[in-house]
Input
Amino acid sequence: MSGRQEEELRRLREELRAYGRSLDGSPGGETMAERVLARILAQELPAPEPAPRPRVRAIRHWTRTRRRSLVAALCGLLTVLVLTPPVRATVSDWFGFHGVQVRHDPSAAPSPDARVPGCAAPVRLEEAARRAGFTPVVPEALGPPDTVSVTALPHGRTLISLCWRDTAGRTIRLDQFPGRLDFTFTKTVREQPEWLDVGGQGLWFPRPHVLTFWMLDAEGRRFTREERTAGPTLLWSPAGRVTLRLEGVQSRVRAREIAMSVTNGGG
Amino acid sequence: MIARVRAGQPEAYAELVRAHTGIALRAAAALGAGPDAEDVVQQAFVKAYCALGRFRDGAAFRPWLLSIVANETRNTVRAAARRTTLAGREAALVGAEPVIPESADPAVATLETERRAALLAALEKLTEEHRLVVTYRYLLEMDERETAEALGWPRGTVKSRLNRALRRLRRLLPEGGAPA
Output
């Protein structure tokens, strides 16, 4: 082959690569991940089961080669097997939402009379913002918080909690943290939550559920996972950067009102 | 990572999706999904999740995922072909213009656009097998081994088809490639 042909082919390869790169979509990896996980949840797809081990494969191969004789013998048995649904893992469904992991576990046991914890070791709002490195949003519908606290999370991240007392003396709590896909909270639910339009997408958990969260140990050195029962909760992420978790509001309509007052107020 | 997904760790699958969204979108576009590329990729990721149990331990994830994307694209294109004419599809392809700095000479820009259009027209004229091998190896920038895995061909076949496809492409282009 001549040098000119070689050169043309080299250029052609370069052009093809350049064309391929021009087809790259916008870097929407985060949104795609959330869309995919939401679909998996919506369709209640079971968690993937591990591939069969070589030994199982060998048995399959053996049965395949002797299919005809086996089919007759096993017909009755196979019918029974097909009619019996496979045993599903206890935790069969999950998905992530702005840094909160939601697990579906019909056997989860939230305690019947749990209370929303208040904001311990309160600090001023400005101090909380300084320590956390972001300004917490204050929903207009709730007004200035009664107390504010700051909690450390792993990887140098920080959680800000705002607390209010409602007229009946119960706590309304709004947790805020920079949402990412390394999960800050895990919610284990017996019933699937519902999507709620709060200007963006929100998730409404109408029933009490088990909430797992990070806690620093007494010496302040090691993070551990703690569990408590959480009441009805609304999750949303108005600007996409910070995830908000509202607890202590029993009514879905009221929770949505509060969330909308953040979105409208510009956070 | 895949072992973690199978063990029911969701963040692992989110990471996989995030890491492969770019290349999956490129594959869908390159294989002709057009405006449906995002939907195709989303569907492919859901299917990949369901099929993860059949994923061979130790195999590369990317070629495996891209073969699912290719399947989904084929299904979508087949459905869309009933609606769209070939001419319309070509127009959509030419729409993906090369990135040219604003300061560039407009005459050069026109030339580049024409060259890209000629390249796409030539790609369309290749046989299915030749177009596939060029797409995987160059448009998707996979190496020979990954291309072989994604297409389910022996490596020798990938090599020889790729050689023939490139030569054919060169002949299909005007003047065997005008100087830039």
